[in-house]
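Module 6 notes. Inverse folding takes a fixed backbone as the condition and produces residue identities as the prediction. Think of it as a translation problem where the source language is geometry and the target language is the twenty amino acids. Below is one complete input and output pair. Work through it position by position during the lab.
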């Protein structure tokens, strides 16, 4: 009777659950653990790499719209990380390591970077108590602020041309 999923954008990652209110405490505990205790091993990482590569193949490499969107971000930005695809490039994904992901998680997955939203049929005071109980123990630190390169002023047209066989 519950659903869980996630998605990532250029600015944030969303984990979400659609649950009956009877699972509220379990879900709050699960999300607190996700924030505080990354459970990742080499076997899981290899599986996830294949999932990311397949999602990229379906959404970008096999999609004229996906290819054009990726090209548009690369045309619009010269230096800023927004020019990079959210899922990364296929040649980079195999080089991800458990240690690099643990390091990223430790630096970024902490209370100062989290926003928790709950909506639906529940007692808000009970939810607040559950959140406090499960999240207040998670150590936090000031989130790192990354300086992004300044984009050069765009003084002219940027253009890209594509040709491909598209079945429709």
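Target side of the pair, the amino acids:
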């Amino acid at each position: 009777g519950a659903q869980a999923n996630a998605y990532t954008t250029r600015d944030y990652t969303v984990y979400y659950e659609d649950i009956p209110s009877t699972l509220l405490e379990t879900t709050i505990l699960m999300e607190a653990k996700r924030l505080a205790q990354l459970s990742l091993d080499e076997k899981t990482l290899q599986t996830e790499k294949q999932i990311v590569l397949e999602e990229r193949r379906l959404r970008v490499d096999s999609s004229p719209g996906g290819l054009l969107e990726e090209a548009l971000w690369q045309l619009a930005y010269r230096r800023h990380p927004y020019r990079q695809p959210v899922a990364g490039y296929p040649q980079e994904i195999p080089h991800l390591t458990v240690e690099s992901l643990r390091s990223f998680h430790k630096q970024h997955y902490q209370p100062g970077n989290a926003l928790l939203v709950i909506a639906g049929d529940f007692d808000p005071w009970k939810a607040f108590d559950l959140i406090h109980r499960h999240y207040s123990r998670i150590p936090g630190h000031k989130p790192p602020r990354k300086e992004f390169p300044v984009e050069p002023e765009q003084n002219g047209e940027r253009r890209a041309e594509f040709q491909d066989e598209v079945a429709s």
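Reference fact for the lab report: Residues 42-61 form the longest helix (20 residues).
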